[in-house]
Amino acid sequence: MKKPEEVVQRMLEHDHFSQWMELKVNSIGVGSAVVSMFVKQEMLNGFGVIHGGVLFSLADSAFAFACNSRDNLSLALDAQINFIKKSVRGDLLTATVEEVHTGKTTGVYEVKIRNQAQELVAAFRGTAFRTGKSLFENKG
Questions:
Q1: 49 lies in some domain
Q2: CA-CA distance, 95 to 55, in Å (whole number)?
Q3: 13 to each of 9, 73, 118, how far by Cα in Å?
Q4: Is residue 137 part of a domain?
Q5: Domain count, the chain
Q6: Residue-number span of the structural domain to which 45 is assigned
Q7: Residue 102's domain is classified under what CATH number?
Q8: Per-residue pLDDT of the chain (140 residues; tens, 9 = 90+)
């Protein structure tokens, strides 16, 4: 079985969007992850605050790292997010993932995104479907 770090490294090699966001994986464990990024100018909406899609993407990437950490290819079945506090250019956002449920075919995860002042910016909950396949199958 691959270690969670190996799985996430493999995922990041092919995840150009997470690379564009300049995500940093601070820690990864079985069913958990802590991922951070700085808010860049091109991530702002017309009101000068972070675009909700970027917050969703940060949470979604962190969720993906956590739910795939067992090297069981897992895909999102559904996800929802609550936007709680605005974020602006230069903010450091950290997404922390907690596994709420893990089963043979599904997993449920909660992601909390906090800013550098530890204020809650967004709360995300996602359900993953486990395919039973390795992320390393049929790949070089």
A1: yes
A2: 9
A3: 6, 15, 30
A4: no
A5: 1
A6: 4-130
A7: 3.10.129.10
A8: 799 999 999 999 999 999 999 999 999 999 999 999 999 999 999 999 999 999 999 999 999 999 999 999 999 999 999 999 999 999 999 999 999 999 999 999 999 999 999 999 999 999 999 999 999 986 54
